[in-house]
Amino acid sequence: MQTTLKVEGMTCGHCEKAVKGALEELEGVEKVEVHLDSGNVEVSHSGVREDKMKEAIEEQGYDVV
Protein backbone atom coordinates (compact mmCIF):
# COMPACT_ATOMS: atom_id res chain seq x y z
CA MET A 1 0.00 0.00 0.00
CA GLN A 2 1.03 3.60 -0.46
CA THR A 3 -0.07 6.58 1.61
CA THR A 4 0.81 10.22 0.93
CA LEU A 5 0.70 12.63 3.85
CA LYS A 6 0.95 16.42 3.71
CA VAL A 7 3.32 17.64 6.43
CA GLU A 8 3.83 21.27 7.44
CA GLY A 9 6.89 22.67 9.17
CA MET A 10 9.65 20.76 7.37
CA THR A 11 12.37 23.10 6.11
CA CYS A 12 15.70 21.25 6.05
CA GLY A 13 17.57 17.97 5.96
CA HIS A 14 17.23 17.55 9.72
CA CYS A 15 13.44 17.80 9.37
CA GLU A 16 13.52 15.21 6.59
CA LYS A 17 15.59 12.80 8.70
CA ALA A 18 13.35 13.23 11.75
CA VAL A 19 10.15 12.46 9.83
CA LYS A 20 11.70 9.61 7.86
CA GLY A 21 13.23 8.04 10.96
CA ALA A 22 10.01 8.23 12.97
CA LEU A 23 8.03 6.53 10.21
CA GLU A 24 10.65 3.86 9.55
CA GLU A 25 10.37 2.77 13.20
CA LEU A 26 6.73 1.76 12.67
CA GLU A 27 6.22 -1.95 12.08
CA GLY A 28 5.09 -2.57 8.51
CA VAL A 29 6.65 0.54 6.96
CA GLU A 30 8.76 -0.50 3.98
CA LYS A 31 9.91 2.78 2.39
CA VAL A 32 9.62 6.49 3.15
CA GLU A 33 10.22 9.36 0.72
CA VAL A 34 10.15 12.92 2.06
CA HIS A 35 9.74 15.81 -0.39
CA LEU A 36 10.66 19.07 1.34
CA ASP A 37 9.62 21.25 -1.59
CA SER A 38 6.00 20.04 -1.61
CA GLY A 39 5.70 18.91 2.02
CA ASN A 40 4.55 15.49 0.84
CA VAL A 41 5.67 12.31 2.56
CA GLU A 42 5.12 9.08 0.62
CA VAL A 43 4.98 5.93 2.72
CA SER A 44 5.02 2.41 1.27
CA HIS A 45 3.72 -0.02 3.87
CA SER A 46 1.85 -3.22 4.57
CA GLY A 47 -1.32 -1.91 6.16
CA VAL A 48 -0.05 0.59 8.74
CA ARG A 49 -2.93 2.74 9.99
CA GLU A 50 -2.76 6.36 8.88
CA ASP A 51 -3.39 7.64 12.40
CA LYS A 52 -0.26 5.81 13.61
CA MET A 53 1.79 7.51 10.88
CA LYS A 54 0.34 10.92 11.78
CA GLU A 55 1.09 10.35 15.45
CA ALA A 56 4.72 9.42 14.72
CA ILE A 57 5.21 12.58 12.66
CA GLU A 58 3.46 14.86 15.15
CA GLU A 59 5.65 13.50 17.97
CA GLN A 60 8.60 14.96 16.03
CA GLY A 61 6.99 18.41 16.14
CA TYR A 62 5.46 18.63 12.66
CA ASP A 63 1.81 19.02 11.63
CA VAL A 64 0.01 16.58 9.37
CA VAL A 65 -2.76 18.36 7.44
TrEMBL record:
Keyword Metal-binding: yes
Gene Ontology terms for molecular function: copper ion binding
Organism of derivation: Halobacillus mangrovi
SUPFAM superfamilies recorded: HMA, heavy metal-associated domain (SSF55008)
Pfam family, one: HMA
Swiss-Prot/TrEMBL keywords: Metal-binding
Record-given protein name: Copper-binding protein
InterPro entries the UniProt entry points to: CopZ, Cu-bd, Heavy-metal-associated_CS, HMA_dom, HMA_dom_sf
Any single biological process term in GO: copper ion transport
Keyword Metal-binding: yes
Domain HMA: residue ranges: 1-65
Domain of life: Bacteria
Lineage: Bacteria, Bacillati, Bacillota, Bacilli, Bacillales
